[in-house]
Specification:
Blueprint: H1 9-13, H2 17-35, H3 40-60, H4 65-85, H5 93-111, H6 116-124, H7 135-165, H8 169-178, H9 181-198
Helix pairs in contact: 2-3, 2-8, 3-4, 5-7, 7-8, 7-9
Length: 213
């Protein structure tokens, strides 16, 4: 009998719609800023309006209200900082700092042998901590988590940091789109490849941890 194909990491983690939604408010900020002759107020207004529309759409789609509030709050926080400092590039400070925090958290999780990719996937699959009792899965999740540390969060920190430091507002808006849903898709694909390459050929897959005996 033919063995069933392994479930891909992309299938477990779901689609890219949330990441695409997250790229819209920064794009709206830059568009409003440029159209209104570099007016931070217009940029902020455009970003907040788009964030609210996206938030309402997410609620209608059935997403949790807390996630929507956090998303809108992040946009509002960036808007407040930009208005406070008078520097349009500061709208992206929260996004920069959140990626610094994410890179550090994911790296630390690997060091303490609680790789966050395993935590996320294990939670989505309803496994709680059973995956940690499988040495092959623990090792594979640890290796694959480095793709998220280096290929997503660290890359964003370097690009966003350099553009923010040099005041490249338009480039920050473009980078916020390019390094959101396309990068997320590439990271999921890359980490999935590393994950399954690290598993033995006879391993039953993510949904079936094999505890150490």
């Amino acid at each position: 009998m033919t063995e069933p194909a392994r479930e891909s990491l992309a299938q477990v983690l779901g689609g890219r719609r949330g990441a695409l939604d997250a790229s819209l408010p920064p794009a709206a900020f830059v568009a409003g800023w440029l159209i209104a002759d570099r007016s931070i107020e217009w940029g902020v207004g455009a970003a907040l309006a788009v964030a609210v529309v996206v938030g309402v759409f997410r609620l209608v789609r059935g997403e949790k209200a807390r996630a929507v509030v956090v998303s809108i709050a992040a946009v509002a926080g960036g808007a407040f900082i930009a208005l406070r400092t008078g520097r349009a590039e500061d709208f992206f400070v929260i996004r920069l700092l959140s990626n610094v925090a994410s890179a550090l958290a994911w790296a630390a999780s690997i060091v303490i042998r609680w790789p966050l990719l395993g935590v996320v996937v294990g939670t989505l699959l309803g496994q709680k901590t059973r995956w940690r009792r499988d040495p092959d899965l623990l090792r594979a999740y640890s290796r694959a988590s480095w793709v998220w540390v280096l290929g997503q969060y660290t890359l964003r920190v370097v690009v966003f940091g350099l553009l923010w430091w040099t005041g490249q507002v338009t480039a920050l808006g473009i980078a916020s789109t390019v390094l959101t849903w396309p990068l997320v898709a590439a990271t999921v694909a890359g980490s999935g490849w590393v994950l399954f390459r690290a598993l033995p050929a006879d391993h039953p897959g993510l949904r079936h941890p094999v505890p150490r005996t």
